[in-house]
Amino acid sequence: MKKMWLFFLLLFFLKAPIVRATGYEGNPPNLNWQCLESKKTAVHTATLTAKKNNQFPPPATDVYIIECIATDSGDKCTTGVSATDEFLFGNTNDLTYLKSKYSYELENVSPPMPVKSTNDGKIPTVTWTSKVVPSTGHRFFGVSIIPEIMGNRQYFPGLKLNTFYFTNASEECGSLRWDPYGRVFDSKSLEPINSVAVTLYDKTAGGPKIVTLPGVTNPQYTVEDGMFNFVVPDGTYTLSPRIDTHTFPNTPSLLNANYTKAYSDIYRGEDIVQAGAIQHRDIPVDPVGAPYRAPIKIMDYSIVLNKVYAKYEISGEVSHPLSIIKVYNGAKYLTQVTATNFGRFDITIETEITDPKSDIRLEAVKTDLSASGLPLTHQDFLPALFTKLVPKAQAATSNSVTMQPIFNQIEGYAYNKSGQRFANATVTIYLVSSKKPFTQVYADSTGYFKIPSQYLPPLPYVIEIRSPNGTTNIMTTNQFAQINQQFISERKVDYGKYNPVPETITTPGAGTIMPTGYNYLTPEASGTISATTVSPTGETSIEENSETNLSTTPKPPAQVTAAKNFAIAVLILLLAIGAVGAGYFIYKKKKTEEEIPQNNNQT
């Protein structure tokens, strides 16, 4: 009986979780991002509103507006103010880039930042006016600073996407674009022309005079998409394009009849009367020699993760109208769409069909508008129907860009640059171009860690892994997936799946509430760091910090749990066999004792 009690006591300790009071420590400030709804109301002006209640609690919280602009190297995000960017991101890199390459200017914000959240957790309507040259896409976010109090200390988990702390929060981030006011294109090839000087003249007060107004660049030089934009007061104006290889005005008989597929409001030198609305004009010019043809270029692109519905929302603009935009995940073809007559495209990709180990690649293939073909509309076509519904695409003239996948959750092991695991590593998520942590967690003694969906941003980010001795390894998301390939396969981890914290537990003593399935640290009085790990099976353990690099092939948590469960099963089986054997022994002994008196009587 004593051995039996020892066995059951051992079994209890094998299964009982160890829970310690810990806190979640990170770096200030704590920024909560929310997608804002944007609506164009005037030239380069939009009104911004919160979509749902409780996006910016508590009432009277400071909320900053962030404008993310699609560029030729992805999204660049800024508040438009250097000091505020420095405060929120730790640098002004994106603002500097936008000013130098896109002539970005924040012209007006009303009410001024920061705005105060309302009693229902929203923000008052914000009017936002900004300018970029050339025109591109805009997304808007509200960011609030909310210190998180846990126990008797103040903790800042870093930048976190506040949208997913509330079940009624928004999950879509729409893109807004200003329409171009004109394009210069070759009358025969129908391709937009680069490096054309377009000058605007004012005829309002008599003879034509070159427009000279603050903030108006005149003349403007077109880029690969041939676009120009002049924002001026009402009046009477004329346009004059100049390029040595072409003549203006266009001779109508030389204009390819297919121009209507991509261009409108054809301009040949007549007066333009603007009265209350910005005027649009497309300008054909006649080639002196061979028709102008140029390589296609993806002018800008943006990718954001719709976290709740696990979809990538990709948008951008390509230089040539009605081009074919193909999407690949590594070498795997996913889908394709046709750009609009302005070269714009919007693509939605389910994360479940993508491989997290490979990047996402956009390939733009130029469409020959001058060739014969059916009229086009902006829509998605089934790949099999493309050759029937669009003019012939010139496969030789294509351009591509790559984007890193955005994980909806992260689970795996922390590795150094040599491919060895880091025990008790600090794992920090940084938005691209930001020096401020978005989220920071800690790996356990095997290097294992997990980050839930609501602690990850919807925009591209990198993963920094730092060992206790300060050695760092900065990884892209697909690099992290590549080095954790075996773990992903064995555990069937889906990095694209929306997987928020499923439940919380209350630790004794401090009374803090922690999500289960994740790792936390708290500084101890001795100065050492302890990590409480809640494993995927719900078990917890506590480990001291160590700078030991682990082997690249230790068992993942699932294997460890399986091994322990197998051992328990073997012990139970042995106990059962022992019990049966003991019972049989008792039975035989009793039967023998009953037979002895009978034998004596017979004697």
Molecular structure report:
The chain is α+β, with helices and mostly antiparallel strands and about 600 residues long. It is about 15% helix and about 35% strand. The chain has five domains: about 30-175, Immunoglobulin-like; about 180-285, Sandwich (Immunoglobulin-like), CATH 2.60.40; about 305-405, Immunoglobulin-like (Sandwich), CATH 2.60.40; about 410-550, no CATH class; about 555-603. The strands form eleven sheets. Strands 1, 2, 3, 4, 5, 6, 7, 8 and 11 form a nine-stranded antiparallel beta sheet that branches. Strands 13, 14, 15, 16 and 18 form a five-stranded antiparallel beta sheet that branches. Strands 23-22-25-26 form a four-stranded antiparallel beta sheet, with no helix packed on it. A hairpin with a 2-residue loop joins strand 3 (about 60-70) and strand 4 (about 75-80). It starts with a helix and ends with a helix. Residues about 1-30, about 150-170, about 375-395, about 500-565 and about 600-603 have low confidence and may be disordered.
**Share of residues in helices:** 10-25%
* Radius of gyration, taken over Cα atoms and rounded to an integer in Å: 33 Å
CATH architecture tag of the largest domain:
Sandwich
Largest sheet: 9 strands, antiparallel
Number of strands: 39
Strand content: 25-35%
| CATH domain class of the largest domain | Mainly Beta
Number of helices: 7
Poorly predicted parts? 1-29, 148-170, 374-396, 502-563, 599-603
Envelope shape: elongated
**Structural domain tally:** 5
Distance linking N and C termini: 40 Å
Please, what is the average pLDDT? 76
Which secondary-structure class do the elements indicate? alpha+beta
**What's the CATH topology label of the largest domain?**
Immunoglobulin-like
